[in-house]
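Q: Convert this sequence to structure tokens.
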Amino acid sequence: MRYKAESGSYLRPHIGSACCAPGVLVFCVIVGLTRPSLPAAGEQKRKHDEARTDRFKQWLNGDVVYIITPEERAVFEKLSTDDERERFIEQFWKRREGGWNPSLTPEEFYRGYVGRVFGIRALDTMLRAYRSLDENEMFMGLESEFNDSHFFLGLGNFLNYADTRDIRMMGQFHTQSNPFEGPDFPRWNVKEQDRSPWVEECRYRRDRFAEGIERLKKALSYRHQAREKVLPGSRDELEYLIFKTDTYIPHLETVRVLLGGYMAYDAAFRARKKGDEKEMLLELDRCESLFVRARALARETAGQVAGKADDPTEKYILFRYNVRFVIPIAEFCKFIKNVVAFHHGEPTGPRWTGR
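A:
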């Protein structure tokens, strides 16, 4: 006698063929050998179902807890069969394949991103911060309209690789044959236009930036509130976001002061056009004061950035900010000083070349 392992069965005694002739029933009792009892089929199924249920719970409350939307969770929890759940999971990931998902809403994106990066405790607070920032970008971009002009590229609130519209306007002054007679450009001509489009736009942008700054401060307050709630590993990221907003606000303040300087310059030459020499000199003095203030704010902002520019990207941004914003404002202050001195009857410095 020997033992043979048969497929799907436990070990059982195997008797030679001679003992297994047709019609012969052989009972074999082997002392010390007992056959293990088979688990009940119901018990096996119960354990299998529990394992599948645990897997779905882990997926819902662990794997995708930060990226699944409330609507998706509600649908998943109503599913009654495992096949339905499997199909749901397959479609869930298909909707998130690749970097481009046209059906993804800002709320879905931020909820998933914030949850993964900052953790569930900080989710609500950080979502408020990101919503405020998102709304502010729309407010100062696609939602901004003035005299049927849509600011698709924004209000000039961001500095990029080229000069902003405000810096480009400075460059036009060095082309004038007589820079002491006021602006005579296509969009800003005090002699021929009762209301210059450029100055009206400056006024609109300055007011818009004021409200945008308040929105940024609101987002900043939410981020400060989240400091004690974010995951330990995300604290550096949070501090970086606070730093970027902290430096963005004074930049916008600088632009607002700059725009006010242009408006005062316009008012000065319009007063001169009316024959009000006294008002003209007052506005020119105010103009110079505003541009000097803008220069100081720009330098302060650059200094604030320099204090935390600890990687090549931030250092390059700082370099561009100095070259494309801080230095041009400082140079334009020399031009304004000459114009003010000329109309006060004082000596002027070398003619400003715009360089």
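Residues 1-36 have pLDDT under 50 and may be disordered.
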